[in-house]
Specification:
mainly alpha; 2 domains; 10 helices; elongated
């Protein structure tokens, strides 16, 4: 499982080879704190803020991640890995159309959770952000293909429609300053699109 998933679960990640147990534990704490701080305050949040939230020194943060850019890149990479793991699990465990729907809902929830930091990430790390988005798009397209081949989604629905759904979700989230209402808006938008995907040709 991706280390980002372990952040959620509270498990102790392995991290880079050679790290001692306490060093791995510190690294997990920094990752968890950085995830929460950046999502709450955006990428302008200081390393000192991350260290304070993690309960460690700034020097400890720098030992684990030499530069804020490294920390941000690691978090973004692991968030994408976490989504991929979720999609694979859905593909194995539920019908294809439901797997696609739940994957879209997970992405919608992630859009809400990262709205304070995602725009900065796309601006400051444009190439890498684009690569990660393409990974997510490709995985969603694979779920769509499986559902379409099984006759559970209209044959006319394409990956472009998934892209439109994601754009609509982002717009719905941006239109709601309140986080809870933004979450509702994101999920309602997914519901509308999924209903149209399941309609008859």
């Amino acid at each position: 499982m991706a280390e980002d998933a372990q952040i959620h679960a509270g498990a102790e990640p392995q991290g880079p080879p050679g790290l001692r147990r306490d060093a791995r534990r510190n690294r997990l704490g920094v990752l968890r704190a950085a995830r929460e701080v950046f999502r709450d305050r955006g990428l302008d949040a200081t390393t000192r803020s991350v260290a304070r939230h993690a309960g460690v020194s700034v020097a400890t943060v720098h030992r684990r991640f030499p530069g804020r850019e490294v920390l941000v890149a690691d978090l973004a990479e692991r968030a994408a890995d976490d989504l991929m793991a979720c999609f694979r699990d859905l593909e194995r465990t539920v019908p294809a159309d439901l797997a696609l729907e739940r994957a879209l809902r997970v992405v919608a929830a992630e859009t809400v959770a990262t709205r304070a930091c995602a725009p900065d990430h796309r601006e400051r790390f444009a190439d890498r952000a684009r690569e990660l988005e393409e990974r997510v798009d490709a995985a969603l397209a694979g779920l769509l293909l499986r559902a379409r081949e099984g006759g559970l989604i209209r044959s006319a629905v394409t990956a472009r429609d998934l892209g439109l759904a994601r754009v609509a979700v982002a717009a719905a989230v941006a239109a709601e300053p309140d986080t809870e209402r933004a979450g509702w808006a994101a999920q309602r938008t997914v519901t509308h699109f999924v209903r149209s995907f399941r309609g008859t040709d």
